[in-house]
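As noted in the main text, all predictions were made from sequence alone. Below is one such record, for LysR family glycine cleavage system transcriptional activator.
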Amino acid sequence: MGRLPPLAGLRAFEAAARHLSFKRAADELHVTPTAISHQVRQLEQTVGVRLFERRTRQVLLTAEGQVLLPVLRDGFDAFARVLEGLSRKRRRAVVTLSATPAFTAKWLVPRLARLRKSRADIDLTLLATLEVADLNSTADLALRYGSGPYPDLIAEPLTVDRFAPVVSPRLGIRRPSDLRSATLLHFDWHRRDARNPTWRRWLKTAGINDVDARAGVRFSDETHAIQATVAGAGVALHSLVLVADELSQGTLVAPFGPELEGFSLHLVRSRDRPLTEPVEAVRHWLKSEFDAAR
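Prediction:
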């Protein structure tokens, strides 16, 4: 690449040529008109051609100046765009939030727009997994569903989940006795625990003995079980937190109880990592969403 003239001279010429005024160029670049004139003259000496016709209180571009102006203008515009992009990239923050696939799909995703509206400078990464995310390397925050405790983490309780029979209103199931002719939908819990809200546990709590708790359709993915319920495939025991939107919209109903208490949902983070402002903003958003849902 050939040797270029000093950048200050090129910048002075571009501003003066754009304004056709040394004074306005000087105002833009925060220097004196004399400095602009000196830098332009040095540039002319370097390239060996006159770039301006200097008249009383006016300057005009020569033919050579007219050739040079668009090249410099486009170049400086390109510099500005690239530098602005780099600056935005440097200012943006990435926060990774881990949650189960069902909670991510049914609760987090519908509420993302409010976070984006208030904090468009934060790029949120949703890590949807049933595995326990490492909060020292993989994720900044996690939503943990269980009984706890979490001694190595900072844990904040958000809500206690509750489960009840949920069904499409199209099926006309209105009372517990209707379960005798209904298809039961089951979700296979990731972990074995006697407190899991299963049909066996619900039927025992409701005092119903003539319904087979094992019959029906089983799902390994909770989101699929919810979709099947909305489609009218049967009646399921669902988290009232996860199907809150469907219940409010009337696409699902919870026609009768009793409700079973599930586990607690905690927002957790590492004790060993500082709470940065972007992570705190996501934490505040999550807590405010749960407060609004109460």
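The domain at 93-159+264-293 is CATH 3.40.190.10 (D-Maltodextrin-Binding Protein; domain 2). The chain is about 40% helix and 20% strand. These features were considered when defining construct boundaries for the mutagenesis experiments described in Section 2.9.
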